[in-house]
Structures are given as structure tokens and as C-alpha cells.
Amino acid sequence: MEEWEEEGPEIVKKFLYVNRRAPYGTIYALECLEVALITAAFDQEESLIFMDDGVFQLKKNQDSSDIGMKNFSKTYRALDDYDVERIYVEKESLEARGLTADDLIIPVEVLSSEELREIIDKQDVVISS
Amino acid sequence: MSHILHLVNKSPTERNGFDTCLRMAKPGDSVLMIEDGVYAALANADFAKTIIGSMNDLSFYALGPDITARGLNDVPLIEDVHVVDYEGFVDLVTETDVTQSWL
Amino acid sequence: MAYECNGTTVEADEEGYLTDISLWNPELAALIAVGENIEMGDDHWEVVNFLRDYYEEYQIAPAVRVLTKVIKKTLGADKGNSKYLYELFPYGPAKQACKIAGLPKPTGCI
Predict the structure, then answer these.
(1) What pLDDT, in 10s, does the model give residues C61-96?
(2) By the CB < 8 Å criterion, does C90 face chain A?
(3) B13:A52 CB<8 A
(4) Which residue range forms the structural domain that includes residue C12?
(5) Interface pTM, i.e. ipTM
(6) Known active-site residue C5
(7) What percent of chain A has pLDDT over 70?
């Protein structure tokens, strides 16, 4: 076992993941979620933004059994166990798709574009998908 | 004139394939939404008015398994977008003369 | 590689993780454990079953830190700690227990 597993990491950076793609049509959403979980396992300070079609990743009641793909929407619920608590959804993107926070699988903070811009401004690393 | 089945598999809010399809489709043609294309069936989304505006000329279908996968069963879909299963997909292909995919 | 269990061949990747997790069964788990030099006792099964339940609910095999934390939350502090879990699975609770549980390698393991 590595020492940091008990003591915490020496360097903590602010990581931001910006999710802009729908879940199943491409591999971007799943890949980004996996990378976010990997950095979270290293105790980094992490934020996730869902905007544009990325808000569809969090749509609840997904059931992908008939299209032969893993329903990885369940995995977003594990973010809490990984101590990823900063999860933001762009208000404008939700509204353009006729969705509200109640349609989403996990609790999120719904913010305007302007508020999100301030969050993006504070990051050390921004990863987009 | 041939009856064309247009297949759209991209979200209307990510790519412009849907817009191009609606511009190029001629009255009497059919449009089947598959994969991320089914997001165009959301009744409360901004794009709905574009679909509804083409309703008089075109018949719209959406693939059920793709709707279910994306969790869209519990939100309103545009009335008159007919949900079909895989068999219905095959029927549409055989009933039309040509299939065109807007990838 | 592959496992031979009850007359059937079950495919696995080069590290021994099952390629089709739906083919898992307890007999196969015991067989994988033999290859890991682990004799399965009740405490081992408790962790393996915990991992399988977690995967069923979240579609993910948790990283070791997360596993420790969620076991602490559900089974108590005497089990949710590195010492206890490493005693059961010396080469890493997430890696070895996941393999025995028929799950993919944990997300967050490099």
C-alpha cells in the first residue's frame, strides 16, 4: 500500500470536468466519468459541470438493457462515495431540453452560465468531453 | 417519386444533421429517430417546434429501445412521433424505397 | 487465460479478471481464490458479496479507499479499515477481491 492512501496526497489540485455529450451515442461521457473517478480516488479537489447535451447523462430512469450497453448512469450515484460533491448543471441547458433538476438521477446545483464561468475561472486543470 | 426513410442518429442540439435532414426531406417522406436522434422527440425541448413545424409534410418515428435507454419514458414526447421497436424499424425500411442516413 | 469450472471454460483477461461478469458463480469464485492463494472463509465471502452488491447498484468496482470507506459505513469500523482488508486479501482488497467476485479491475487502480 502506498503511504498516501492513509495520509492523503501531498499535492491537491482543482480538477474540473466539463461534460457536454449525451451518454450512449459516443464513448465520451463514460470515458470522462471514469477519468473523473480515477482522479477522485487520488483525493483531488474535483468539480463536474454538465451542460449542453451533457445534462442528458444525468437523466434518471435510464434502462439500456435493450441496446446492449452498460447503464452507467447508476455510477454517477457513486460520486458521493468518492467525495465528489461539487456537481453543477447549467440552467440554460436544462431549460432548452425541457428538463428540471427533478429529472436528474443525483442532487446537483443548477447554476447560470454566468455563475459557471466563475467556477471555471478557479480551476487548475480543466478536462472537456 | 421514391418514398425515402431518413435515419437520424445524432442529437439535434449537438450536430446539424437533423436540420439538414428536415431541409432535404420532401413531403411524404418518413423520418426515424435512432440513438441520440431520439432526443429530438422531447416535447418540452426548444427543438420540438422544429419537428412540429414539419409534421404536415413528414411522418416521424422514434426507436423505443433508444428512448428507454436514455430515460425518456417519463417525460413528454411530441405527440404523433410514433414509437417503434426493432421490428417496426425493419418494417419501415422494407416499406420505403430508399433509406438515407444523416450521420 | 481461462478458468475450468464444473466442466465449462470461462474466459478471463491476462490478469485473471472475468471477461463476462454474468458467468460468475461461487464455485468459480473459490477456484479464482485458489489461484490467489486465498482460502475463502466467511469474512472473505462477506467482502466479495459486498463488492458484488456494490457493483449491482453502481455498475462500478470501487477503488480501495472508497471500498474501505463504504465497508466502514455498512459493516463497521472493525472491518472498514486497511489492516483488516489487507489481512483478508494481501495483494490488495480491491484488486484480489474484485477478481474473486468476478468484477472488472476497480476504477481508480493504475
Answers:
(1) 998 889 999 999 999 999 999 999 999 999 988 789
(2) no
(3) yes
(4) 2-100
(5) 0.94
(6) no
(7) 94
